[in-house]
Amino acid sequence: MEVTKRHDRPPPCGQQRADAADSTSRRRIARDVLPVAAQYGLLGGFAAVAAGISAQGLIGFARDNMGLRWPWPYLLFFALDGAAGVCAVLLMRRAARAETAIAPRLAVWGLVAASAVFNWTHAPHHPAARQAFALMPVIAATLFEFSLRETARETRRTHGHPDRRLPPLAWLRPAERIRVQLQLAADPALPAEAAVRRVRADLAAKRLYQLRQALHADSPSSAATRRTRRAERKACAALTRARFADPDIAALVLRQVQVLTITPALASLDYVTADAAHTAIGNLIAADIFRTAHASWHTPPPIWPPGCHKTAAKKCPASTVTRSPMPALVPVDGVKTVTRS
After folding, report:
1. pLDDT value at 306 more than 60
2. Of 118, 143, 155, 315, which residue is least crowded by CB atoms under 10 Å?
3. In whole angstroms, what is the distance from residue 30 CA to residue 28 CA?
4. d(CA 106, CA 124)
C-alpha cells in the first residue's frame, strides 16, 4: 500500500501580515492595559485603607467633639469622603477628555484638608499618632493626583490634544507664569508653548516701547539718563528671553511696538469709511517681510565669468570672480528696511 504524505501549505503572505499585525496590536493593548490596571488597583487598595483609618478619626470626632449620636457620626464620614469621591470622579472624567478642572480639584483638596484637621483633633495623644492620622487622607489625595496627571497625559498623547502643561520650574518666574495661565484660560485650544511665546513677546514689546519713550524724553538730567539705562537693560533682557533673533518672533514684537506707538493715530482715524482702517492694517509689520530679509542676508553665491566654472576655479583669475550685491539697510521714516543695491 502506498502512503502519500500531506504537507501543510504555508498561509498566504497577506494572512501572515494580518496575523502579525493582530499579534502586535494585542501585545500593545496588553502593554497599555496591564500597567493601568495595576495602577488603579494599588490606588484603590491604598485609598480603601486610608478611608478606613480616616473613618476612625472622623467618627470619633463627630461622636466626642461634636456630640452627635448614632447614625450621625457615620453620616459625617460618608458626607466628607463621599463629597471628595464625587469630586474625584469629576476630575477623572475631565482628565479622560484632557480638560482642566480647577474647581473640582480645589474642592478635593479642601475636603482632604478638613478631614486631616478632624483626624488630627481626635487622634490619641501618642508619639506621631496625630501626624499618622492626619497624613492618611493627604497621601491618598497625592497618589490620586499623580494618577490623574498620568491619565490626562496619556489622553493628550493618544488623541493629539495640545500640551497645555507648564514645567514646574516656571514658578521661578511667578509673574510670567500667571500671565501664561491667563492666556491659557482665555483660549482653551492654545498650547502652553504658544502662550509662553505670546507672553514673552508682549513683555519684550512693552520694554522696547518704554525704552523708546525714554530715548525721546526731552530732559537731559542724570535721573533721565539712569532711567534710560535701566530701560535699556530691561529691554535687552526681555528681547533675549523672547528670542528676538527668530524672524517670526521679531515680527510679532515689532508689530506690538508699532501698535503701541500709533495708538493715538488709531484713535483719531476717520471711521466713517473703511479706507483709513484698511490703510492702517496694511501698514502693520508682517512676518513675511522678515523671512524674506532673513533669507537674503546670507552670503550670495559667486558670479563666475564666462568660460569659468566653480570646479575649475583655480584656472580663473581671482579678480574676475564677483559676488551679487548684498542687501543694504536704508532708513525710511525712522525704520530700516531692506533694499537691494
Report:
1. no
2. 315
3. 5
4. 29
Grid cell for residue 9: 501549505
Measured from the Cβ of residue 24, the count of other Cβ atoms closer than 10 Å reads 10
- Omega before 127 cis (within 30°)? no
Strands (DSSP E) along the chain, which ranges? Answer: 302-303, 322-323, 327-332, 335-340
* Location of C-alpha cell 469621591: 85
Regarding predicted confidence, which is higher, 12 or 338?
12
Candidates 140, 179, 144; CA nearest to 40 is 144
Q: Which residue(s) pair with 137 in the sheet? A: none
Residues 145-182: pLDDT tens digits? 888 888 777 777 777 667 777 887 877 888 998 999 88
Cα 201 to Cα 252: distance, rounded to the nearest angstrom: 7
Residue 116: how many other CB atoms lie within 10 Å: 21
